[in-house]
Amino acid sequence: MSAPNEQAAGRPERTDVVLGSVPGLASLYATALGRLAAGRLGRQAAGTPDRGAAQEALRLPAVRHVVRGVAADPERLVAYQRLVGDTVRDTLPSVFVHGMAFPVAMDLMVRADFPLPLLGMVHLDNVVEHRRPLGTAEELEIAAWAENLRPHRAGTQLDMVVEVSAGGETAWRGVSTYLAKGIGQGVREGGSAPEPGKRPAYVPPVPTARWRLGADTGRAYAAVLGDYNPIHLGALPAKALGLKRHIAHGMYLAGRVLANAAPNDRAYRWSISFEAPVFLPGTVEVALHPRDGALAFEGWNAASGRRHFAGRVDALRPDGSWTD
User: Of 6, 55, 88, 323, which has fewest CB within 10 angstroms of its CB?
Assistant: First the structure.
């Protein structure tokens, strides 16, 4: 069965792969580890350790993974709300919805025909439309697909799109952008990948909060939402994947911000870009401030002067447009 309105919207036709339930993240990470190990062994056997590949040789699977009849776990919801400092209420926080849907997207990303390795990917940014409040008892449908494979100066990036529907209408839509470093590097149709621009010196604003994150922050988030990516759990598994030590989940950071910034009684859109990882344990200076009719936010390391993330929350105007 093809995804509805794909051709009418000018997008490629995709086949729905309907799953019986939301997959378990533990088994998905095991599959991803197996693919990573097999890929490394294959490159060693072929004598080609360089992961560079022609961009045009990479193809995303033309499928959507779909799960129907999904409901929030009330105990997990309360645990999440307490973890990020959110209010315990009967509507779903936006990042909690992302956490419910993430295994469906990941199930697609560990397919044998998915061209990029899941582990080692860099999470660049998210744009989410939370189109209406979602009640805790609502039955949800989750659909995920990959699109917009394109070059990046450090490799190849793509978008993972997730839509969460209730009552036949899309209530939440998120686009997560990921980078596979060193794959397809410098290759694009008709030319080379764009050159990096020189970033201006970062001048932090006046902080409005300070977060002190313990070494167990990643494990605490994983215990609630099941995201046991090794780079978040401890120094040794993170080092095995190329990091100097483990880092905070990007969605944990987003959830902490939105606990203080999201207008939970109406529609809103939020976006976040990740610029530098938050190593654990660590301290993050945070600022929330109005900008252009929206609420802007950013977090940075006061000692190094590096910004970790930046984003904004936009409300929906009465005419249906966003405040930006």
Answer: 88
User: How many domains in the chain?
Assistant: 2
Measured between alpha carbons, how far is 68 from 4 in angstroms, rounded to an integer?
15
**End position of a domain, from candidates 191, 211, 240:** 191
pLDDT tens across 160-218, in order? 999 999 999 999 999 999 999 888 754 343 334 445 556 678 889 999 999 999 999 99
Residues 103 and 7 in one domain: yes
Question: Can you tell me the distance from the alpha carbon of 26 to that of 114, in angstroms, rounded to the nearest whole number?
Answer: 19
| pLDDT tens digits, 73-112 | 999 999 999 999 999 999 999 999 999 999 999 999 999 9
Contacts 24+ apart (CB under 8 A), 220-224: 220/83, 221/83, 221/248, 221/249, 221/251, 221/252, 222/249, 223/79, 224/76, 224/79, 224/80, 224/83, 224/99
The string of pLDDT tens digits covering residues 307-322 is: 999 999 998 766 666 6
| CATH code (residue 225) | 3.10.129.10
Q: Is the pLDDT of residue 35 over 80?
A: no
**186/218 same-domain check:** no
Residue 171 belongs to what domain range?
A: 1-191
Looking at the structure, do residues 166 and 212 belong to the same domain, yes or no? no
Query: Per residue in 60-98, is it b (16+ CB within 10 Å) or e — as a string?
Result: bbbbbbbbeebebeeebbeebbebbebeeeebbbbbbbb
Per-residue pLDDT, 184: 77
pTM: 0.86
245 and 317 belong to one structural domain: yes
Q: Give the domain-ending residue among 156, 191, 226.
A: 191
